[in-house]
Design brief:
By secondary structure, the protein is of the alpha+beta class. 44% of the residues lie in helices and 21% in strands. Strands 1-2-3 form a 3-stranded antiparallel β-sheet, covered by helices on one side. A hairpin with a 2-residue loop joins strand 2 and strand 3. It starts with a strand and ends with a helix.
């Protein structure tokens, strides 16, 4: 899910873009001049960052600079390797389960012990 800002004339309007089946759909949130809409947009954007409680999983990089879309493989591998249940729940809100399983199967960095555990967890034998 991502936030899309459209500018029409001098006003800006917020939309939430998400996948619905094989298509990308947009849902209107409202004008950015509305404080409630601006607050919701800020919360949605914050959701696309690594939460503070999981920053310790990314000790070798600046978590603020990690792009959750561009570095999806890195994020998934790290959470599957050293993350806990709370981190997995966050990961599943960010990425589809299919992508997590695919990364688990194709990763060269994920130890075999972790890979076997997640195969059982996701029932992806």
């Amino acid at each position: 899910m991502s936030v899309v800002i459209k500018k029409i004339g001098a006003r800006e309007y917020a939309y939430v873009a998400y996948r619905s089946g094989g298509k990308v759909a947009q849902k209107y949130v409202g004008p950015l001049s509305d404080p409630q809409v601006a607050s919701r947009v800020a919360a949605l954007r914050e959701e696309r960052r690594i939460p503070g409680r999981f920053r310790s999983l990314f000790w070798d990089t600046d978590p603020a600079k990690v792009d959750l879309n561009g570095n999806a493989r890195y994020v998934i591998e790290r959470v599957l390797d050293v993350g806990g249940l709370a981190a997995l729940n966050w990961l599943q809100r960010i990425y589809p389960t299919k992508r997590i399983i695919e990364t688990c199967e194709t990763s060269r960095k994920l130890p075999e012990r972790s890979r076997n555990f997640w195969r059982l967890w996701f029932d992806a034998s």
